[in-house]
Amino acid sequence: MDHADHANLLKTAGLAPAGAWADLGAGSGAFTLALRELVGAEAAIYAVDQDRGALRELERAYRARFGDAQNLHILPEDFTRALQFPPLDGVVMANSLHYYKNPKRDADERGGRGGNSMRVRVNARAARSASSSSDKMSILEHVGSLLKPHGILLLVEYNVDSGNPWVPYPISFETFRSLAPRAGFSEPRLLGTVPSRFLREIYSAMAHREDIHH
Ligand SMILES: C[S@@+](CC[C@H](N)C(=O)[O-])C[C@H]1O[C@@H](n2cnc3c(N)ncnc32)[C@H](O)[C@@H]1O
């Protein structure tokens, strides 16, 4: 996938320009750059990752593509912890939620039906990421608390529920659809899909924060 593919996955969200956004688990910035393309130079973008090397790459790529990085804020932090942002208009989570387990109820529901996502051996990097007790529900609730009322969550994930050592706990669109409302979000809308040779396909989805948090 290239920059155009990344931007296309988010484009049908029809984002308004400007505002305050965060990319949680931004890595080297594939979707930070896509986001910047869609929300424009006036938007404040907080790129959060615990991998400082990836964030250096992100900043280089951002400057190379957009010329300056005045409204880009690089945060080498753990996104499961308290983060110093203003209330956000939106959050992007691209391939970063799949390091966190499904909430117990989902795991129980899948038990005996062949879902192996709770049994895979997790690779070292993912194990570092998933070392806290966070699961997808608590992460989504935390993300909701960072958003303004009706703020946007853009999720990019593999459209499968069975993982492997690199993508230990993927979340299909159907599973996200059932989880999001329980974590304080609207019913998600599927934005786009791209075939993946690695794991079936990648999808993008959008949900809004509902008002149960405050
Ligand atoms: C597979 S990469 C995805 C990078 C980028 N979003 C993309 O789609 O190309 C996942 C990233 O999430 C980061 N990550 C996972 N858990 C994190 C956490 N709790 N806090 C900060 N970064 C985290 C990892 O360091 C890694 O860079």
Mean pLDDT: 89
Order of the strands making up the biggest sheet: 3-2-1-4-5-7-6
How much of the sequence lies in strands comes to 15-25%
Q: Which series of helices and strands comes N to C? A: HEHEHEEHHHEHEE
**Alpha-beta content class:** alpha/beta
Q: Which small compounds were modeled alongside the protein? A: S-adenosylmethionine
Please report the distance between the alpha carbons of the first and last residues. Answer: 38 Å
Secondary structure: helix percent: 25-40%
Total count of strands: 7
**What gross morphology would you assign?**
globular
Which sheet architecture does the biggest sheet show?
7 strands, mixed
The CATH topology annotation reads as Rossmann fold
Number of structural units classed as domains? 1
Helical stretch tally: 7
Features:
7-stranded mixed β-sheet, Rossmann fold, alpha/beta, globular, about 30% helix, binds S-adenosylmethionine
Strand and helix map with partners:
Blueprint: H1 3-11, E1 20-24, H2 30-39, E2 44-48, H3 52-66, E3 72-75, E4 88-94, H4 104-110, H5 124-129, H6 136-146, E5 147-158, H7 173-182, E6 189-195, E7 201-208
Parallel strand pairs: 1-2, 1-4, 2-3, 4-5
Antiparallel strand pairs: 5-7, 6-7
Helix pairs in contact: 1-2
The structure holds S-adenosylmethionine (SAM).
S-adenosylmethionine binds at residues 25-27, 30-31, 48-51, 54, 78-80, 94-96, 99, 129.
Describe this protein's structure.
The structure is a single chain. The chain has 214 residues and is of the alpha/beta class. The protein has one domain (3-208): Rossmann fold. 32% of the residues lie in helices and 22% in strands. A seven-stranded mixed sheet has the order 3-2-1-4-5-7-6, with helices on both faces. Strand 6 and strand 7 (201-208) form a beta hairpin. The protein is globular and about 45 Å long. S-adenosylmethionine is lined by residues 25-27, 30-31, 48-51, 54, 78-80, 94-96, 99, 129. S-adenosylmethionine (SAM) binds at residues 25-27, 30-31, 48-51, 54, 78-80, 94-96, 99, 129.
